[in-house]
């Protein structure tokens, strides 16, 4: 009887809880629609079209909903976006993929619509100077729901084409200034007063030359020689010098920067049928990275959403049909080929974005990966043939020379493929 009472109680409550949930969701959507009604006519129409009269793209919680409504009202104020404050918007958007939350909402449609007339007038030199505005605007305008609704409204929200191939390179002035400051300290005050001709004469003097030869021979012996190399490398300064040294020698897997990532958004590439564009949270303060993956024909988009994965984070960024990709998703490909199956490598349960992924083994576990892999040295391509999944489906790197097995793991456990055994990883 006790079980029966509890059972009937649960059955009685479920419809009530479901009704309350739907009612709460409906009220939140109404608040989005009410905020959208304050927007100027074309932007309001676009927002209502994309959100299906406010029924979609609301918040997933009441707190998110308040943020979304607040941002829509800022846009509707008429002063938040104008041609004179695009620089301020650019700064605001530096760490953001979306304006109100960490996922696409009605607030993004409103901001895109209000920005459109100003961004559409920018010349190449002007949008080069607004990289975050350009990135954000292009990401929103290429979303299928926005693109379709904008197309139905004629030329009001015509697609803005950005040519980024000729964008000027960023000048880094910090390092040269440090070198200039160090240069005077390196030379003693007495030497600076000596004529150059004296140095030349002293170097040609037999005794002086003999002394130099002795010193050089000593430096070439064992530890003194290596110390000399380290001192020379140290002149380049701190971490940069260490990275350059780590880049030398045979490629090893610990040079690769692997991290746990979380897909917070994924869409199909508007100009490539086989590509996804993902926003992947890697635990970085700058926000999610844009990553392009050729997985459309192998993994349904529903299985990509909200997925935790392993990402290769120090490859050189690459343009993929007009979209720059800043990482690579690590996948397992069946030993029978792509058509037999491709799966995302999964980190252990409980993993968080940004968790370090490393290779087992004393020589690898505490090694620091390179800041960026040099494409000319083909480090990843050299190491990759050893990436496999074991009979246990665990991801690993097998040393081709020694046949030693080094599992790929986080501090919480080993990374695995869902089903594939003997698969190659790339």
UniProtKB/TrEMBL annotation:
<dbReference type="InterPro" id="IPR051270">
    <property type="entry name" value="Tyrosine-tRNA_ligase_regulator"/>
</dbReference>
<keyword id="KW-0820">tRNA-binding</keyword>
<dbReference type="InterPro" id="IPR002547">
    <property type="entry name" value="tRNA-bd_dom"/>
</dbReference>
<dbReference type="Pfam" id="PF01588">
    <property type="entry name" value="tRNA_bind"/>
</dbReference>
<feature type="compositionally biased region" description="Basic and acidic residues">
    <location>
        <begin position="209"/>
        <end position="227"/>
    </location>
</feature>
<dbReference type="InterPro" id="IPR053836">
    <property type="entry name" value="Arc1-like_N"/>
</dbReference>
<feature type="domain" description="GST C-terminal">
    <location>
        <begin position="21"/>
        <end position="162"/>
    </location>
</feature>
<feature type="compositionally biased region" description="Basic and acidic residues">
    <location>
        <begin position="169"/>
        <end position="178"/>
    </location>
</feature>
<dbReference type="InterPro" id="IPR010987">
    <property type="entry name" value="Glutathione-S-Trfase_C-like"/>
</dbReference>
<keyword id="KW-0694">RNA-binding</keyword>
<protein>
    <recommendedName>
        <fullName>Nucleic acid-binding protein</fullName>
    </recommendedName>
</protein>
<dbReference type="GO" id="GO:0000049">
    <property type="term" value="F:tRNA binding"/>
</dbReference>
<dbReference type="InterPro" id="IPR012340">
    <property type="entry name" value="NA-bd_OB-fold"/>
</dbReference>
<feature type="domain" description="TRNA-binding">
    <location>
        <begin position="252"/>
        <end position="358"/>
    </location>
</feature>
<feature type="region of interest" description="Disordered">
    <location>
        <begin position="169"/>
        <end position="237"/>
    </location>
</feature>
<dbReference type="Pfam" id="PF21972">
    <property type="entry name" value="Arc1p_N_like"/>
</dbReference>
<dbReference type="InterPro" id="IPR036282">
    <property type="entry name" value="Glutathione-S-Trfase_C_sf"/>
</dbReference>
<dbReference type="GO" id="GO:0017102">
    <property type="term" value="C:methionyl glutamyl tRNA synthetase complex"/>
</dbReference>
